[in-house]
Amino acid sequence: MSPVCFDTIIRGARVVTPAGVARCEIGISGGRIAALGLSLGEATEIIEAEGLIAMPGGIDSHVHISQPSGPGIEMADDFGSATRAAVAGGNTTVLPFCLPEDGQSLRVAVAEYHAKAAGNCHCDVSFHLIVKATDPVTLGQDLPALIAAGHTSFKVFMTYQGLALSDREILEVMSVAKEQGALVMVHAENEDAIEFLRDKAEREGQTDPLFHARTRPVPVEREATHRAITLAEIADVPLTIVHVSNGESLEEIRRSRARGAKVFAETCPQYITLTAADLDRAGFEGAKYVCSPPPRAASDWEAIWSGICNGDFELFSSDHCPFRFADPAGKDAPGARTSFRNIPNGIPGVETRLPILFSEGVSKGRISLERFAAITATNHARLYGLKTKGAIMVGMDADIVLWDPEMTREIRQDDLHHGSDYTPWEGFTVTGWPVRTILRGETVMHEGDVSGVPTGAHIARSAPEVLL
Ligand code: DUC
Ligand code: ZN
Ligand code: ZN
């Protein structure tokens, strides 16, 4: 019998599979994982990976790219720069949100996002929808058509003027999700409470970046988390609470699960590494850390870690929402220095999500390699209907990232690939670094060099696994 000939064999790595960690070779053919075994034979390309760990390529299911951000404000990343940063950070798929401009239909917005992404992506992409209008065309025509075309998840907001939906509207959206087979994601913060606190802070002259955090305290998020889950129970749908920042909101999620609610939870690096004190840095530096929900207290890190370690969080995403700092189209927007209200809301993080969790989680012994793979890739694929992604298994897309678990580096803006001019993690030391990213069998990043050719594709998604 002639030896099997693969396109590529990865040899010598410890391989993280859903069945555990194995020392084996990975045979790749036609962009898919064709075999896992001890001695696979011949291949056109052999990747020697002795001392490295082979993980499923990261899936970051919460990023914002080229999103409309208000008059005169521009996101720091387009699809080229965001996905270049994504693969440099060990990701092979990202799920950005599609936000319609005011008055624009969701269908037209999705078509525009496809046009912006086409031919420019270094990793695969698929869009969540943001539902900000609940008119009959959006709910009765656009959403069903877009879900049928593979956009099987959407986010609703409980905060921000122009975006926040009422409870009734959220129920209407949830009922479309139930009928059409999609998963609802919720940004849970109480808009009225925030506006009350913001007006009061401004009246009292408390306008520095820190007051972004002070006017969005934990109860604002905890109450909305409870309400979102209650609405989902009334509508009888599962839901994802995104960017959970604190222990009290997580407690609401735990209590709801104990009574049978189907709730999934996501957290992000900022909630285990940053605090509200970062928004109080000298000068205008605090603006670099303005995001919502805001970073909390160090005591909340422990609560979030308990949820990461014990499985309460299915998802660890970046919430990459990048603005430039020294830029009037970014954090230094007109009025931003006179009130926190005018500071664009969001921080960059798609490139640093995985190294931060690997270092703080795996290298420090808090979580296993298997749990890392689950919350950075496998669960994202299952929850959001990416059938061929998220696991090193025969038949899956050969989306693989090779980690050097011993490499220690300082995160530095100068080394990053994103379009922002700063990172909130400047000088943060990590142990464990992604050294090669492989997308559908092809190396797209090696030792920090990202391939010049953007080979990423749009992926139409199936129904989320929880709905099947
Ligand atoms: N919510 C997000 O998910 N990202 C950035 C800003 C926000 O409010
Ligand atoms: Zn949000
Ligand atoms: Zn977000």
Automatic annotation (TrEMBL):
Q: Does the keyword Hydrolase apply?
A: yes
Residue limits of the Amidohydrolase-related domain? 53-444
Hydrolase: is it a keyword of this entry?
yes
Matches recorded under CDD domains: D-HYD
Locate the N6-carboxylysine modifications and list their residues: K155
Keyword vocabulary terms for this entry: Hydrolase, Metal-binding
- SUPFAM superfamilies under this entry? Composite domain of metallo-dependent hydrolases (SSF51338), Metallo-dependent hydrolases (SSF51556)
Which cofactor is recorded for it?
A: Zn(2+)
Looking up Gene3D superfamilies in the UniProt record yields: Metal-dependent hydrolases, Urease, subunit C, domain 1
Annotated InterPro entries: Amidohydro-rel, Hydantoinase/dihydroPyrase, Metal-dep_hydrolase_composite, Metal_Hydrolase, Metallo-dep_Hydrolases_sf
Q: How is it modified after translation?
A: Carbamylation allows a single lysine to coordinate two divalent metal cations.
**What's a GO cellular component annotated to this UniProt protein?**
cytosol
Query: MF terms per GO, please?
Result: hydrolase activity, acting on carbon-nitrogen (but not peptide) bonds, in cyclic amides; metal ion binding
Q: Which family does it belong to?
A: Belongs to the metallo-dependent hydrolases superfamily. Hydantoinase/dihydropyrimidinase family.
Name under which the protein is recorded: Dihydropyrimidinase
At the highest ranks, the source species' classification is: Bacteria, Pseudomonadati, Pseudomonadota, Alphaproteobacteria, Rhodobacterales
